[in-house]
Specification:
The structure is a single chain. The protein is of the alpha+beta class. It contains eleven helices and ten strands. Among the domains are: 4-58, no CATH class; 120-192, no CATH class. The protein has helices spanning 20-24, 37-43, 45-51, 60-66, 78-84, 86-92, 101-106, 119-125, 127-133, 142-148, 160-166, and strands spanning 26-28, 34-36, 67-69, 75-77, 108-110, 116-118, 149-151, 157-159, 173-174, 183-184. The strands form five sheets. A two-stranded antiparallel sheet has the order 1-2. Strands 3-4 form a two-stranded antiparallel ribbon. It has a two-stranded antiparallel sheet with strand order 5-6. Helix 2 packs across helix 3 and helix 8 (119-125) crosses helix 9 (127-133). The chain is elongated and about 75 Å long. The two termini are 30 Å apart.
Length: 206
């Protein structure tokens, strides 16, 4: 249970009253400089939630702005949501992308108007560009592999556009015996409209 002094920024001035407060209400950085929970929340939110999630109780606004409840009414921070349900993360709390500079680079891209969109937006609005430029995003939703393409005889997955370019009459692919799936298809109709340019126009919890 946090002491009363920890309810507001600047409480570290009274740490001399009880040395235990230094351990429970803050931590040392790599230069061995001690900082309180409020400093960590402002300057390194990932460390805050990864190492000291109990600090979220120090400010009632943090629970509202930095996380949300799942269907079992268990609260999770933004980093948990990004790791465990990325689609819900971007559909419901897209502002959280600012919590980690890597997320903007790995989870989305800019259109020709310099508006940033997440991978789910690109999949909905320009699927050909999605697969031509960021095929690694396929892993963001397990349904996309079944819906958007198929495996060849060497068990290599290809997007529908690739199949159409090989033979426009193909609409269904049979997987060789012994594989873990017997059939993939049909090829999505979107593969028949091929565009290499980006678009210019600018939920489910667990």
């Amino acid at each position: 249970m946090a002491h009363a002094a920890s309810a507001a920024p600047g409480f570290h001035a009274s740490l001399a009253l009880d040395p235990r407060w230094r351990d429970q209400d803050g931590a040392y950085d790599n230069q061995h400089a001690w900082h309180d929970a409020y400093w960590w929340h402002k300057n390194n939110r990932r460390y805050f939630y990864t190492s000291h999630p109990e600090w979220v109780g120090y400010d009632p606004q943090w629970r509202e702005q930095d996380g949300d409840y799942d269907n079992q009414h268990a609260w999770h921070d933004a980093y948990w949501w990004h790791q465990n349900n990325r689609q819900w993360f971007y559909n419901n709390r897209p502002e959280w992308v600012s919590y980690d500079s890597q997320w903007r680079n790995q989870d989305g891209d800019y259109d020709s108007q310099r508006s940033w969109h997440d991978a789910y937006w690109w999949h909905r609005n320009n699927r050909d560009w999605f697969y031509s430029n960021h095929p690694e995003w396929l892993s963001y939703d397990p349904q996309w592999q079944n819906q958007d393409g198929a495996f060849d005889q060497q068990q290599r997955w290809h997007y529908g556009e690739w199949w159409y370019n090989q033979n426009p009459s193909w609409s269904r692919v049979t997987i060789p015996r012994g594989s873990n799936r017997t059939r993939i298809g049909p090829i999505p109709r979107t593969c028949r409209t091929i565009s290499s340019n980006k678009l210019s126009f600018s939920s489910n919890k667990q």
